[in-house]
Design goal:
The protein is α+β, with helices and mostly antiparallel strands and about 325 residues long. The chain is built from 8 helices and 18 strands. The protein has a 6-stranded mixed β-sheet with strand order 1-5-6-7-8-9. The chain has a 6-stranded mixed β-sheet with strand order 10-11-12-13-14-18, covered by helices on one side. This is Metallo-beta-lactamase domain-containing protein.
Length: about 325
């Protein structure tokens, strides 16, 4: 008998969650025009896990994009947003879900790639969902900003009784019930999972223990930065890369990660740790080559305008799917 595809799978649906203007010199180099800007999306995704035997459908949203009402951001974040105009928030995650007949209460969990303003949207809209963040993310909500304008955070961003921070890949798994995990089967499973090597990725968590959805440790951009690897019904994969890279040319080798000196002559980079960010891109690039044990892997960057435009034409936005 021929091999059979695994029974359980996930479907992935792009969600329109705002656009903003990106000054390219802060993200890639070399550039001929140092004043070049482009309109980019801040993509979010609905991931639906289909457990065929149990007849269960778990709904997860990966990233929440931009906040519908930008005046609801804190003053320091609003000051930074002023440098990213024009901004379009006419359609946010809630409106995008509604296009397919869903409301926030239908969402079981929200996985945030990281806690920058353009990925966190409005968590308050999701009053019953569990929030899952990478290790180190929660500390950002109580720390002083680094001084760079994009690194401002809101202490009241996430509901502490429904937020679960993953354990560090090199630390032991949690041995006790944690806040944010006590009453939820999904986060309890994650608390008891060990990070495992998968293909080119050193650390992954098998969310449903069936190979259909993995959380991938993707350090470099910001503390707690994580990605997800999704296996579709046909057995191929989609890798949602968040801000591991801001331009597909970083994967192709046409461009490199940008860095610059500020007014105080300090070296700056959009990534917190440029060396780690490069290593993370290396692993993604390897998966993107389609030559690993994973087979075909589509990589989607959160701010890929070309991907977003093609996806709209191809009907890959919810209720359509990838």
């Amino acid at each position: 008998m021929g091999s059979q595809l695994p029974l359980n799978f996930v479907s992935i649906h792009a969600l329109d969650s705002g656009w903003f203007s990106m000054p390219e010199r802060y993200f890639v180099h070399p550039l001929e025009d140092q004043k070049a800007r482009k309109q980019v999306p801040s993509l979010s995704f609905l991931i639906q896990h289909h457990d065929v035997e149990a007849s269960m459908n778990t709904k997860i949203v990966f990233d929440l994009g931009l906040r519908r009402d930008i005046t609801r951001y804190s003053p320091p974040i609003r000051a930074h947003i002023a440098t990213r105009e024009p901004i379009d928030t006419s359609t946010d995650v809630v409106a995008s879900l509604a296009r397919g007949g869903l409301v926030p209460d239908d969402v079981d969990a929200v996985i945030l790639s990281h806690l920058h303003w353009d990925h966190c949207g409005s968590p308050a809209d999701f009053k019953t969902s569990q929030f899952i963040v990478g290790n180190g993310a929660m500390a950002l909500l109580s720390e002083q900003p680094t001084g760079m304008s994009h690194n401002h955070f809101e202490s009241n961003l996430l509901p502490h009784d429904r937020t679960f921070e993953l354990h560090h890949p090199t630390a032991p798994r949690y041995d006790t019930v944690l806040d944010g995990a006590a009453s939820n089967a999904l986060t309890m499973r994650l608390a008891n999972r060990q990070w495992q090597h998968l293909g080119p990725f050193p650390y992954t968590l098998d969310v449903f223990d069936d190979g259909s959805l993995y959380i991938v440790w993707a350090p470099g951009h910001l503390a707690g930065h994580i990605n997800v690897l999704c296996r579709k019904k046909d057995g191929t994969y989609v890798y949602l890369a968040g801000d591991a890279g801001h331009d597909l040319r970083l994967l192709s080798g046409e461009k490199e990660i940008a860095y610059w000196r500020d007014e105080n002559h300090q070296m700056c980079c959009i990534h917190q740790d440029i060396d780690q960010a490069r290593r993370t891109l290396d692993t993604i690039r390897e998966a993107w080559s389609n030559k690993t044990s994973l087979g075909a892997v589509e990589v989607v960057l959160a701010h890929d305008a070309a991907w977003a435009s093609k996806a709209r034409v191809a009907g890959r936005y919810f209720p359509g799917e990838l």
